[in-house]
Amino acid sequence: MAAATMSATANENVKPASPVDLSTIPISPVGDKADDKKKPVTEGGDVTVFHDKDKFNVKHPLMNKWTLWFTKPPSGKGDNWNDLLKEVITFNSVEEFWGVYNNIAPTSELALKSDYHLFKEGVRPEWEDQQNKHGGKWSYQFKEKRNVPIDELWLHVMLSAIGETLEEEEDGEVMGVVVNVRKGFYRIGVWTRTIGKSIPGGGDGDVAGGKGRSLEKGKEVLMSIGRKFKEVLKLPEGEAVEFSGHTDSAHSGSTRAKAKYSV
């Protein structure tokens, strides 16, 4: 999905109104549709979301399919993680994203100990997942909850993920993004496939587990993601986002493992 299209959609706050049945609308041809709104609509021709947010007849495809997950708060009765983690929906177009976004509770209204996870299709938001187990995450913790525009920040992080603007196309690092709602803070994270090293037994090329990358290149890719993540969060220069490996987090028994990198 071209970043320009995602940006235009976000900036114009284009949100298809319910009850558009997105499953009946065909995917438009792959390409940059950022200038669609400048084109005349011919009778019987394609009507994009830029022409009519309610009566569009084509959708703008994303580069990847994405799945939204939700972790409900534990009941305190020894809940199993798999019982708390729920798969919500998978989508693959800009319009479907807005359809989902408009029909879920804002982060600011979630109960404590809830999480939203937005991951590429086929990747579970768990350290143990085959595509996550060699990776880590960039994260930032907002401690002054009352002064944090968490809904806006989480929306922009999701848009940067599905719009593929957190990394270069050939990097293949970003697995998903997460927001945690806790008593004293909100935390937003970006999960990556690696920690800057090649994955043992990874596939061919940089996209599959960083195979063939030098340690210097691997770190450079991760640091670039961290810088872009920090920009999306609009953090001041004196604040830092931190990167830690999932293995380190698992060993420490905490999501707050010692930072491996910071930006």
Automatic annotation (TrEMBL):
GO biological process: regulation of translation
Protein's UniProt keywords contain RNA-binding: yes
Record-level GO cellular component terms: eukaryotic translation initiation factor 4F complex
Cross-referenced Pfam families: IF4E (PF01652)
Region (Disordered): 1-45, 244-263
Domain of life: Eukaryota
Protein keywords: Initiation factor, Protein biosynthesis, RNA-binding, Translation regulation
Biased composition (Polar residues): 1-12, 246-255
Compositional bias segments (type: Basic and acidic residues): 32-41
InterPro entries to which the protein is assigned, alphabetical: TIF_eIF4e-like, TIF_eIF_4E, TIF_eIF_4E_CS
Record GO terms (molecular function): RNA 7-methylguanosine cap binding; translation initiation factor activity
Subunit comment: eIF4F is a multi-subunit complex, the composition of which varies with external and internal environmental conditions. It is composed of at least eIF4A, eIF4E and eIF4G. eIF4E is also known to interact with other partners.
Family named by the database record: Belongs to the eukaryotic initiation factor 4E family.
The protein's role, per its UniProt record: Recognizes and binds the 7-methylguanosine-containing mRNA cap during an early step in the initiation of protein synthesis and facilitates ribosome binding by inducing the unwinding of the mRNAs secondary structures.
Record protein name field: Eukaryotic translation initiation factor 4E-1
Organism whose genome encodes this protein: Hyphodiscus hymeniophilus
